[in-house]
């Protein structure tokens, strides 16, 4: 673990998301703003003796490069999720740091790019024999039948944080599918992913590690999303971020999940298989649903998930015996151990 890590000059790089969040209510903007995570990370690192400075990934990468050099950054804590206010450019932040020759926390450009593409993620899961729901990818409103078993959930193919997912995303017939596909394409300007809805229990498992002999990937205790009201079927954008939405208080993360050892073992095995398939390093999270027969399906692979205090990864780390400060320092240690990429 990160005990005894020598003090470093750590640049904390994040993306201001004011433009991306424009139109959202103020209480949602605060929870989503990456500056909040950056402050929490900086506080944890300063408490451990590191010298830190925050940097925003603005519109002038050349100026950012000069600022990082002037600070004398030895390693970068990379929280840049939306360079140029685009979630699709998250991998560009990591690639930029590689070009500068700076070690950085979290995942490399390839898994960040691949996992942002939900359809490509599912194709890779299929190719590795990891169960995932059947799906179709639609660049336009379909004319024929989908061939999917209903109900089906329709979501944007390249968004993060449950953006574009509401209770209306779950449809019960071909007519509803076509209507929802049209909505996603028009509203988000991208392809729509339709996948068979798995209606059983929902779990997520966080991981830490670089996938190397020195730092193998290890799982954190599984968490379960508990739906306390049958009215809610999905973890929507509002249920995650809108404290005024009724689903916010009725969908609760329970960690550790109250599950038998055999189910915990299956979740851990599938999570590690996902980590190997996508070459995950640093930290990540894998989301699952279980059908009524007890079969697990991987829904999404999330490199660099939210690490703000009391987010899912932090809660799982605390169950595993890591304080928030220890989690942040372990992520930093993994970046230093990984070195230049």
How does this structure look, described?
The chain is of the alpha+beta class. The protein folds into three domains: 9-105, Rossmann fold (3-Layer(aba) Sandwich), CATH 3.40.50.20; 113-131 and 199-338, D-amino Acid Aminotransferase, Chain A, domain 1; 135-196, 2-Layer Sandwich (Dna Ligase, domain 1). The chain contains eleven helices and 13 strands. It has helices spanning 26-32, 34-47, 61-71, 90-100, 109-116, 118-127, 174-188, 237-241, 261-278, 312-319, 324-338, and strands at 9-14, 51-56, 75-79, 135-138, 152-156, 170-171, 192-196, 202-209, 218-219, 223-227, 251-254, 282-290, 296-303. Strands 8, 9, 10, 11, 12 and 13 form a six-stranded antiparallel beta sheet that branches. A four-stranded antiparallel beta sheet has the order 4-7-5-6, with helices on both faces. Strands 2-1-3 form a three-stranded parallel beta sheet, sandwiched between helices. Helix 2 crosses helix 11 and helix 4 (90-100) runs antiparallel to helix 5. The longest helix is centred in the last third of the chain and has 18 residues, at 261-278. The two termini are 21 Å apart.
């Amino acid at each position: 673990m990160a005990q005894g890590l020598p003090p470093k000059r750590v640049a904390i790089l994040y993306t201001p998301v004011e433009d991306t969040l424009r139109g959202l209510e103020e209480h949602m903007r605060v929870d989503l703003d990456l500056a909040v995570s950056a402050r929490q990370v900086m506080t944890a690192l300063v408490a451990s003796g590191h010298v830190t400075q925050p940097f925003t990934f603005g519109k002038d990468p050349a100026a950012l490069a000069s600022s990082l050099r002037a600070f004398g950054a030895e390693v970068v804590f990379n929280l840049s999720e939306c360079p140029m206010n685009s979630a699709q450019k998250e991998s560009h932040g990591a690639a930029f740091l590689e070009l500068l020759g700076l070690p950085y926390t979290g995942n490399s450009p390839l898994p960040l790019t691949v996992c942002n593409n939900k359809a490509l993620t599912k194709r890779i899961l299929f190719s590795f024999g990891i169960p995932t729901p059947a799906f179709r990818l639609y660049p336009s409103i379909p004319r024929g039948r989908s061939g999917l078993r209903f109900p089906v959930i329709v979501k944007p193919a390249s968004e993060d944080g449950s953006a574009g997912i509401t209770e209306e995303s779950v449809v019960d017939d071909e007519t509803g599918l076509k209507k929802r596909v049209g909505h996603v394409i028009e509203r988000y300007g991208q392809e729509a992913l339709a996948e068979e809805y798995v209606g059983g229990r929902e779990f997520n498992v966080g991981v830490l590690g670089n996938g190397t002999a020195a730092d193998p990937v290890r799982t954190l205790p599984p968490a379960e999303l508990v739906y306390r009201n049958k009215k809610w079927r999905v973890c929507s954008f509002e249920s995650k971020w809108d404290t005024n939405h009724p689903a916010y208080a009725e969908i609760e993360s329970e960690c550790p999940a109250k599950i038998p050892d055999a189910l915990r073992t299956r979740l851990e095995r599938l999570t590690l298989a996902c980590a190997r398939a996508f070459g995950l390093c640093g930290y990540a999270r894998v989301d699952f649903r279980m059908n009524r027969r007890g079969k697990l399906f991987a829904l999404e692979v999330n490199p660099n998930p939210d690490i703000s205090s009391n987010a899912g990864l932090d809660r799982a780390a605390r169950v595993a015996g890591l304080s928030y400060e220890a989690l942040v320092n372990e992520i930093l240690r993994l970046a230093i151990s990984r070195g230049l990429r």
